[in-house]
Amino acid sequence: MTEDFNRRIMERKVVITACSALTPIGHGKQQILHSLRNGISGVKPLRDDGLLSDHIHSKVFGTIDYPVEFDFKRSHRKTMGPVAFYACQVVKEVLEQAGLDDNFITSGRLGVAFGSTHGSPTVQRNIYKTFFSGSKDQFSNVSAVDYLKSMVHTTAVNITKMFGITGRVISSSTACTTSSQSIGFGYEMVKFGLQDAMICGGADEYDTTTVAVFDNLLACSTAFNDTPHLTPRPFEARRDGLVVGEGAGAVLLEEYNRAKKRGADILGEVIGFSCNNNGGDLILPNARGIKETIRLGLESARIRAEDVDFISAHATGTKMGDVIEAQAIHGIFGDTVYVTGLKSYMGHTMGTCGVIETIIALYMMEKGFIAPTLNLEKIDKRCAMIKHVTNLVESDIRTALIQNFAFGGVNTCLILKKISNPNQH
Amino acid sequence: MKLEREYILKELGRIFNEKFEINNPGAGDDLREEHEFDSIDAIELLVEIERILGFPLSQEQKKMAMDVRTIDQICDYIQKMESARV
């Protein structure tokens, strides 16, 4: 019986049947593809926030500077800060795209794995302003819903509320691996039969406190303040740090047979996931830890290194991080697999980067091309041992690997496979 | 000066319209059932009620408002709180 159970679990496939992203380089597939194909950056000047922006050395931000129409009724809006607006918007688009039956959405067999770096910093900032105002009259300015807007799992539960989802709720909040963990944990929920489908992703809103933190750690880009589109520069000789950004992304994971039966479009299959910790320093990247994550990811997917066609590197554009990542990639793959640092287009969208990079990998898988790392004019010699994509490559991606690393020493690796669509006519 | 019921109703109409996006609720409508007015909204409404009354309510007085369901009952509650003050 155990063997039979194990066999059934191993045969259970998890596919992605809908996705949507709201990013500094566009909203939805067409705009994002346009930016990727034309080398358009979403990095813009840092806005004046009346608090920190004057003191921050880095004056750039991966910005959503186009209008987004949020058509949410008040009973939903009232518990949402900006980060939850982003999250609910991409999930709304995913559910519309997927065409799931309402009865299934509320059945308990659909769950949510969604997170953000720290709830809504805009709302948190207002709460602290009130706390430190010294005025008793200001006390009532702390609204009854401020906690619901600012709590760490605000995105996940606002999603469940808006769509009446009653299944499992996972709300990862591990900084830069937040949404890659969401997809990975969602994958495990479906793979191991605990849910039939999961909505997974992450969101982060415009926030200067995150910039200030990285700025104080001397990790932010400052040399391109007058030419924002020229930074970040992953793996490039003149790179000088990361650029913080905002965004949101969501994917729908479904058990393959269920998706096939209902006639869903299959965008790709998740075939592996790994997550580990460096077991030491909470900030410094670690080649041994990264290599182990990749090794575990390949083992989970039951594939060999040579089966991978494309790697979406974490590649934030920091001086040491990119070198260590390149060493780790080279240690496993040599110089045979195409590598792109997608943050070069939009900066580091923090908790959202994993899902946005996953969605971009799906888009490129569908269209048969690989976008280059933007601003990669002169490759740093210490990063040169891997196969960088410096110009757009028309190439079929059958298997893609998306890796992300976070403060706290957390590493993730997601592996996607192109799948022939059984419902394509 | 005693608050007139007509004035209270007018103020509540404005508050429900502007703050809760509930237009012209019937005086006897069950706000929870018919207008999705929940406990979070009730807390927000108490801030507005304190403004109408012109004085703060105690925690005990606020808890008494949690059973209120209709515009009529909100009017009754406001007048009761005002009388208690006097």
Tell me the span between the first and last alpha carbons of chain B. 10 Å
Count helical runs of chain A.
15
Structural class determined from secondary elements of chain B:
mainly alpha
Strand content of chain B: under 5%
Q: Just name the CATH architecture of chain A.
A: 3-Layer(aba) Sandwich
Helix content of chain B: 55-70%
CATH topology of chain A: Peroxisomal Thiolase, Chain A, domain 1
Give unreliable regions of chain B as ranges: none
What coarse outline of chain A follows from CA principal-axis ratios? globular
Major pleated sheet of chain A: 12 strands, mixed
Largest beta-sheet characterization of chain B: none
CATH topology of chain B: Non-ribosomal Peptide Synthetase Peptidyl Carrier Protein, Chain A
Q: What's the helix-strand series of chain B? A: HHHHH
Overall pLDDT score of chain A:
95
How many helices of chain B? The count is: 5
Task: Outline the low-pLDDT stretches of chain A.
Answer: none
Distance between the termini of chain A: 39 Å
**Structural shape of chain B:** globular
Helical coverage of chain A, percent range: 25-40%
Identify the most extensive interface between protein chains. Answer: A-B, 10 and 10 residues
